[in-house]
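Write out the bound-state structure for uracil.
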Amino acid sequence: RTQTVFGVGSTAARWMFIGEAPGAEEDRQGEPFVGRAGQLLTSMLKALGFAREDVYIANVLKCRPPGNRDPRPDEARCCRDYLDRQIELVAPALIVAIGRTAAQNLLATDMPLAKLRGTVHALGERRRPVLVTYHPAYLLRSPGEKRKAWQDLLLAREIVGRLERGET
Ligand code: URA
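---
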């Protein structure tokens, strides 16, 4: 990697998005989700009424794995304290885990993405709400699934709304 890619956005954000690891473009720019998949994520945020600056975006890994391979468990473990501290400091109302690898790492599970989507998971002692959705890189390959990803984001919006009204 050429540099660490730590995170970007508002530290007062109510929404936090957590992806897998920086890719080539992220490694070049030092910012998460700025490549092709990132541009799709940015468009999805816009459709929800958010600019990138309104949310907080980070990854499980802070460094690009060689050749974009999947993060290894020891690498995820190395970065975990940084991620946990980011979550603690931003203290978002809701975390959206982006894609299978991020979700499985974050939630320490090997459940498939299809099973992880659609329900609110509780993270850590504070039981922070986590929703899981498709990775935009997958949506670029399978545009037919975009509708389901949009449903995930609408569910996310409903949950944040409920939490902010003190209903949960
Ligand atoms: N994919 C990710 O999971 N994270 C990024 O930052 C970019 C692409």
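---
The chain has a mean pLDDT of 97.
Strands lie at 7-9, 15-19, 56-59, 94-98, 121-123, 128-133.
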